[in-house]
Design a protein that fits this description.
It is built from one helix and 14 strands, in the order αββββββββββββββ. It has 238 residues and is mainly β. It has one domain. The longest helix has 19 residues. The C terminus is likely disordered.
Amino acid sequence: MKLIYSSILIALLASTSVLAQDSKKIYTTSSGELIFSFANINDNGSEEGSILRFSPVVNIQNWVNIDKSDHFGLFTGLSVRNVGFIYDVPDNSPVKYDYPDDTNVRKKFRTYNLGIPVGVKIGNLSDKFIFVGYELEFPLHYKEKTFINEDKVDDKTSVWFSSRVNTLNHSLMAGVQLPYGATLKFKYYLTNFFNKKYEASNGQGGTIRPYENVDVNVFYFSLSFGLLKNADFYYNED
Protein backbone atom coordinates (compact mmCIF):
# COMPACT_ATOMS: atom_id res chain seq x y z
CA MET A 1 0.00 0.00 0.00
CA LYS A 2 2.84 2.41 0.82
CA LEU A 3 4.36 1.63 -2.58
CA ILE A 4 1.05 2.52 -4.25
CA TYR A 5 0.80 5.84 -2.43
CA SER A 6 4.44 6.69 -3.18
CA SER A 7 3.93 5.82 -6.85
CA ILE A 8 0.89 8.12 -6.97
CA LEU A 9 2.93 10.97 -5.49
CA ILE A 10 5.79 10.45 -7.96
CA ALA A 11 3.33 10.38 -10.86
CA LEU A 12 1.62 13.56 -9.65
CA LEU A 13 4.93 15.37 -9.22
CA ALA A 14 6.05 14.26 -12.68
CA SER A 15 2.75 15.45 -14.17
CA THR A 16 3.11 18.78 -12.40
CA SER A 17 6.60 19.19 -13.85
CA VAL A 18 5.35 18.49 -17.38
CA LEU A 19 2.32 20.75 -17.01
CA ALA A 20 4.52 23.57 -15.71
CA GLN A 21 5.80 23.96 -19.25
CA ASP A 22 3.86 26.61 -21.18
CA SER A 23 2.22 27.81 -17.96
CA LYS A 24 0.88 31.33 -17.87
CA LYS A 25 2.29 32.06 -14.43
CA ILE A 26 4.42 30.41 -11.72
CA TYR A 27 4.82 31.93 -8.26
CA THR A 28 5.16 30.95 -4.59
CA THR A 29 2.87 31.64 -1.64
CA SER A 30 3.49 31.09 2.07
CA SER A 31 0.95 30.81 4.86
CA GLY A 32 0.39 29.73 8.45
CA GLU A 33 -2.35 27.37 9.64
CA LEU A 34 -4.63 27.27 12.69
CA ILE A 35 -5.60 23.59 13.04
CA PHE A 36 -8.67 22.16 14.80
CA SER A 37 -8.29 18.38 14.82
CA PHE A 38 -10.25 15.29 15.81
CA ALA A 39 -9.70 11.58 15.16
CA ASN A 40 -11.70 8.53 14.14
CA ILE A 41 -10.62 6.06 16.83
CA ASN A 42 -11.29 2.35 17.16
CA ASP A 43 -9.49 1.10 20.27
CA ASN A 44 -10.24 -2.60 20.71
CA GLY A 45 -13.86 -2.05 19.70
CA SER A 46 -14.35 1.26 21.53
CA GLU A 47 -15.03 4.20 19.19
CA GLU A 48 -15.30 7.03 21.73
CA GLY A 49 -12.93 9.46 23.41
CA SER A 50 -11.72 11.90 20.75
CA ILE A 51 -11.46 15.49 22.01
CA LEU A 52 -11.04 18.68 19.97
CA ARG A 53 -7.37 19.68 19.70
CA PHE A 54 -6.27 23.20 18.75
CA SER A 55 -2.74 23.61 17.35
CA PRO A 56 -1.81 27.15 16.24
CA VAL A 57 1.95 26.47 16.02
CA VAL A 58 4.10 25.54 14.25
CA ASN A 59 2.20 25.11 10.96
CA ILE A 60 3.85 26.66 7.91
CA GLN A 61 3.32 25.82 4.25
CA ASN A 62 4.93 27.13 1.10
CA TRP A 63 3.25 26.41 -2.23
CA VAL A 64 4.67 26.63 -5.71
CA ASN A 65 1.64 27.67 -7.79
CA ILE A 66 1.47 26.82 -11.49
CA ASP A 67 -1.42 28.68 -13.11
CA LYS A 68 -2.34 27.31 -16.51
CA SER A 69 -5.01 29.98 -16.96
CA ASP A 70 -6.95 32.50 -14.90
CA HIS A 71 -9.27 29.70 -13.72
CA PHE A 72 -7.17 26.52 -13.48
CA GLY A 73 -3.88 25.83 -11.77
CA LEU A 74 -1.69 23.29 -9.97
CA PHE A 75 0.34 23.46 -6.79
CA THR A 76 3.06 21.58 -4.95
CA GLY A 77 5.57 22.63 -2.29
CA LEU A 78 6.68 21.90 1.28
CA SER A 79 5.04 22.18 4.69
CA VAL A 80 5.86 21.74 8.37
CA ARG A 81 2.79 20.80 10.40
CA ASN A 82 1.80 19.99 14.00
CA VAL A 83 -0.65 17.06 13.74
CA GLY A 84 -2.23 15.10 16.58
CA PHE A 85 -5.25 14.29 18.73
CA ILE A 86 -6.48 14.19 22.33
CA TYR A 87 -7.93 10.95 23.65
CA ASP A 88 -9.79 9.84 26.78
CA VAL A 89 -8.54 6.26 27.01
CA PRO A 90 -11.17 3.55 27.75
CA ASP A 91 -10.51 0.97 30.48
CA ASN A 92 -10.16 -1.94 28.04
CA SER A 93 -7.42 -0.26 25.98
CA PRO A 94 -3.85 -1.65 25.95
CA VAL A 95 -2.75 2.00 25.66
CA LYS A 96 -3.72 2.13 29.36
CA TYR A 97 -1.53 -0.81 30.36
CA ASP A 98 0.40 1.23 32.98
CA TYR A 99 -2.67 2.45 34.89
CA PRO A 100 -5.48 0.93 37.02
CA ASP A 101 -8.84 0.42 35.31
CA ASP A 102 -10.64 2.96 37.50
CA THR A 103 -8.20 5.75 36.58
CA ASN A 104 -9.30 8.55 34.25
CA VAL A 105 -6.49 8.73 31.67
CA ARG A 106 -6.31 11.39 28.99
CA LYS A 107 -3.56 11.21 26.37
CA LYS A 108 -2.32 13.92 24.05
CA PHE A 109 -0.41 12.73 21.00
CA ARG A 110 1.23 14.76 18.25
CA THR A 111 3.90 14.64 15.57
CA TYR A 112 5.69 17.35 13.65
CA ASN A 113 5.54 16.38 9.98
CA LEU A 114 7.36 17.45 6.85
CA GLY A 115 4.88 17.37 3.97
CA ILE A 116 4.87 17.42 0.17
CA PRO A 117 1.47 18.43 -1.25
CA VAL A 118 0.24 18.05 -4.83
CA GLY A 119 -3.11 19.41 -6.00
CA VAL A 120 -5.28 21.39 -8.39
CA LYS A 121 -7.05 24.77 -8.11
CA ILE A 122 -10.26 25.74 -9.90
CA GLY A 123 -11.96 29.14 -9.92
CA ASN A 124 -10.90 32.76 -10.07
CA LEU A 125 -7.26 32.23 -9.10
CA SER A 126 -6.74 35.92 -8.33
CA ASP A 127 -9.66 36.02 -5.90
CA LYS A 128 -11.73 32.97 -4.83
CA PHE A 129 -11.24 29.32 -5.83
CA ILE A 130 -11.50 25.75 -4.58
CA PHE A 131 -8.67 23.23 -4.39
CA VAL A 132 -8.24 19.50 -3.83
CA GLY A 133 -5.05 17.53 -3.33
CA TYR A 134 -2.95 14.79 -1.82
CA GLU A 135 -0.10 15.16 0.64
CA LEU A 136 2.71 12.84 1.69
CA GLU A 137 4.03 13.59 5.19
CA PHE A 138 7.11 12.36 7.05
CA PRO A 139 6.79 12.41 10.89
CA LEU A 140 9.92 14.02 12.35
CA HIS A 141 9.20 14.36 16.07
CA TYR A 142 6.74 12.50 18.31
CA LYS A 143 5.39 13.71 21.66
CA GLU A 144 2.97 12.09 24.09
CA LYS A 145 1.58 13.63 27.30
CA THR A 146 -0.51 11.98 30.01
CA PHE A 147 -3.14 13.44 32.33
CA ILE A 148 -4.37 11.35 35.28
CA ASN A 149 -7.72 12.41 36.74
CA GLU A 150 -7.28 15.77 34.95
CA ASP A 151 -3.81 16.38 36.43
CA LYS A 152 -0.75 16.39 34.21
CA VAL A 153 1.85 13.83 35.25
CA ASP A 154 5.57 13.63 34.61
CA ASP A 155 5.14 10.93 31.99
CA LYS A 156 6.03 12.73 28.78
CA THR A 157 7.53 10.98 25.76
CA SER A 158 9.44 13.15 23.30
CA VAL A 159 11.33 11.34 20.52
CA TRP A 160 12.82 12.17 17.13
CA PHE A 161 11.88 9.68 14.39
CA SER A 162 9.92 7.51 16.81
CA SER A 163 8.97 3.93 15.92
CA ARG A 164 5.63 4.47 17.71
CA VAL A 165 4.27 6.06 14.54
CA ASN A 166 4.47 5.15 10.86
CA THR A 167 7.32 6.55 8.78
CA LEU A 168 4.98 7.87 6.04
CA ASN A 169 1.53 9.44 6.26
CA HIS A 170 -0.86 9.79 3.33
CA SER A 171 -3.67 12.33 3.36
CA LEU A 172 -6.33 13.94 1.19
CA MET A 173 -7.39 17.58 1.39
CA ALA A 174 -9.97 19.98 0.02
CA GLY A 175 -10.56 23.65 0.65
CA VAL A 176 -11.58 27.08 -0.54
CA GLN A 177 -9.41 30.17 -0.99
CA LEU A 178 -11.22 33.31 0.18
CA PRO A 179 -10.41 36.95 -0.60
CA TYR A 180 -7.50 38.64 1.19
CA GLY A 181 -5.47 35.43 1.56
CA ALA A 182 -7.70 33.49 3.98
CA THR A 183 -8.18 29.76 3.34
CA LEU A 184 -10.53 27.14 4.82
CA LYS A 185 -9.33 23.55 4.50
CA PHE A 186 -10.41 20.03 5.46
CA LYS A 187 -7.85 17.23 5.64
CA TYR A 188 -8.16 13.49 6.32
CA TYR A 189 -5.24 11.14 7.05
CA LEU A 190 -5.56 7.77 5.34
CA THR A 191 -2.66 6.32 7.35
CA ASN A 192 -3.10 5.00 10.88
CA PHE A 193 -1.44 7.39 13.34
CA PHE A 194 0.31 4.58 15.23
CA ASN A 195 2.66 1.80 14.18
CA LYS A 196 0.74 -1.37 15.06
CA LYS A 197 3.99 -3.38 15.37
CA TYR A 198 5.53 -1.12 18.02
CA GLU A 199 6.52 -3.06 21.16
CA ALA A 200 6.80 -1.69 24.72
CA SER A 201 7.63 -3.23 28.07
CA ASN A 202 4.66 -4.49 30.06
CA GLY A 203 6.49 -3.92 33.36
CA GLN A 204 6.71 -7.66 34.06
CA GLY A 205 9.72 -8.57 31.96
CA GLY A 206 7.73 -9.07 28.78
CA THR A 207 6.53 -6.89 25.92
CA ILE A 208 3.19 -5.67 24.64
CA ARG A 209 2.04 -4.13 21.37
CA PRO A 210 -0.16 -1.33 22.74
CA TYR A 211 -1.32 -0.13 19.31
CA GLU A 212 -1.87 -3.50 17.65
CA ASN A 213 -5.67 -3.18 17.79
CA VAL A 214 -5.85 0.60 17.75
CA ASP A 215 -6.92 2.40 14.57
CA VAL A 216 -6.61 6.19 14.57
CA ASN A 217 -7.25 8.36 11.53
CA VAL A 218 -6.76 12.05 12.27
CA PHE A 219 -8.76 14.68 10.42
CA TYR A 220 -8.89 18.42 10.83
CA PHE A 221 -10.34 21.73 9.77
CA SER A 222 -7.95 24.65 9.44
CA LEU A 223 -7.92 28.36 8.82
CA SER A 224 -4.89 29.69 6.96
CA PHE A 225 -3.66 33.20 6.36
CA GLY A 226 -1.31 34.22 3.55
CA LEU A 227 2.01 35.51 4.87
CA LEU A 228 3.97 36.16 1.69
CA LYS A 229 3.50 36.07 -2.07
CA ASN A 230 6.50 36.56 -4.32
CA ALA A 231 6.67 38.16 -7.75
CA ASP A 232 5.84 36.00 -10.75
CA PHE A 233 9.02 34.39 -12.08
CA TYR A 234 7.76 32.80 -15.30
CA TYR A 235 5.39 34.08 -17.92
CA ASN A 236 4.59 32.86 -21.41
CA GLU A 237 2.25 35.24 -23.19
CA ASP A 238 1.38 32.62 -25.81
